[in-house]
Design a protein that fits this description.
By secondary structure, the chain is α/β, with parallel strands linked by helices. The protein is about 50% helix and about 15% strand. It has 17 helices and 9 strands. The strands form 3 sheets. The chain has a 5-stranded parallel β-sheet, sandwiched between helices. A two-stranded antiparallel sheet has the order 1-2. Helix 4 crosses helix 5, helix 7 packs parallel to helix 9 and helix 8 runs antiparallel to helix 9. The longest helix has 23 residues. The relative contact order is 0.10.
Amino acid sequence: MGHTLSIALGVALGNPQKRVICLSITSPLCAGRLLIVTSAGFTKRGITAKLQAEADKRRLSKQIQVFDKVTANPELDFLDQIAREMRGRGIGGIIAVGGGTVLDTAKILSVTIPGLAPNLREVLQEGRDYQWQSRLPVVAMPGTAGTGAEVTPLVTVWDKKNGKKYSVSGEMLYPVHALIDPELTLTLPLKETRYSGLDAVSHALESLWNKNSNAITETFAFKYLVLANEALPALLKRPESVYLRTMMQQAALFSGFAISQTRTAIAHAVSYSVTIRFGVPHGLACSFILPGLIKHYTASLDNGQIKTVMHKTLKNLESLNLNDDMANYTRGVDLSKYIDEMFHADRTANYAGTITKEDIIGLLE
């Protein structure tokens, strides 16, 4: 069955008497070397060094390969390049430590490193019909509280050169384990804390006003909003609070469960265009239009728990002045001229209400 690699994150990151999260990876995950996928930010904040130090203590350093060059919004060519570089290195499993981009990168590499006949660009850009043949197991450790990517089979791949983004999904993209450690988010800058939290707000709302929703997804999405309405405003004032970080990671997990079943809707359809054209961070890009969408959707709702929690969310969003944040990126550009890009059928069709291009133009204005 192979040997066992153990990396004690709790010992590396905190007081071992207080908290020990032991990551034990056994065959087939350790049939080869272990690839740690993360970002330069996590390396700079010391997380990567602590992982490597734990591996050294256990004399496992030669079995660890670190890749910490993941940047925001993984590009198609970048992912193809990394997969080519990692092939032939005996990688048997992946640990992803970081935000949604890191987790997405790890999930794509898990199916492309083992060997993809055509490359990713050919599969996505040229639309070749191809089924993943095998995968490397992924252990996902989210370093933000927002994307929920640790529990979804979804990946977003970007092709900025051609102004496109691709949504990749499939059972093989689910991580085999998700480990939630709120202390990993303590070093996250306030801006990233804010935007990752907003990403999860959009996931919960878009799951609730979704044609694919059901009793289970509604429960998860509702639970997220209840927790986040209390925790997110407080966390932005007290980012050092482990308690509030814990609440947000729990909340983000709930929204991840919900969105993994329903997929996203209008807010995300709008977001992709402004991210590609103006470099707007994803959490901001998919949340700046949420206040208008909440008003549009709840106008036809009877009074009830969903309407109440959405109105509470609306008050919190309006207090953040997201339009000011957007103005820093768009510089007064009229976003409505991109409405044909934003009104994309594979997302807008998920909206449970009735909405037109003219309605969205009104919200953008």
